[in-house]
Design brief:
Radius of gyration: 33 Å
Order of helices and strands: HHEEEHEHEH
CATH topology of one domain: Nucleotidyltransferase, domain 5
Number of strands: 5
Shape: rod-shaped
Number of helices: 5
Strand content: 5-15%
Largest sheet: 5 strands, mixed
CATH class of one domain: Alpha Beta
Helix content: 40-55%
Distance between the termini: 89 Å
Length: 151
Amino acid sequence: MQHSRRAKRFKLKSEINVVPYIDVMLVLLIIFMVTTPMMNSNVDVNLPQANAKSMHDKKEPVIVSVGQNGQLFLTLGTAPKEPIDAEGMKTKVGAFVKANPDVSVLVAGDRDGKYDGVYQVLAELQQAGVAKVGLMSQPGQADAGAKNGRP
């Protein structure tokens, strides 16, 4: 009788204890998380070289320039730059883009001007039906920006 009671008390379990495996997995995860950023910091990559030329539009772009005080200037294709008001700009650019859907429309803003002027021009061009608008910039010199207190 005693033998059957002892067998019931100390019955063997056939389940696998996974707690130690989880602990090992978490330690490995932490090790990989710490070492991975260190491995990617100094990777030398030799990129392929190409002799491709920069892409140029066949048509001259439409350029809307925003001056420092918010005044607008319009350059349509090869025409000279002309001062214009907001309504005239919407009308002319809208008609020009409808006639030439492949033409690029660019907005050039004065560096010392307010961003609000550029934002208003972007909104008005959208109302005129222009789908894509690019922002113009000039490549700057690294030391010129540092002298002006800009990074």
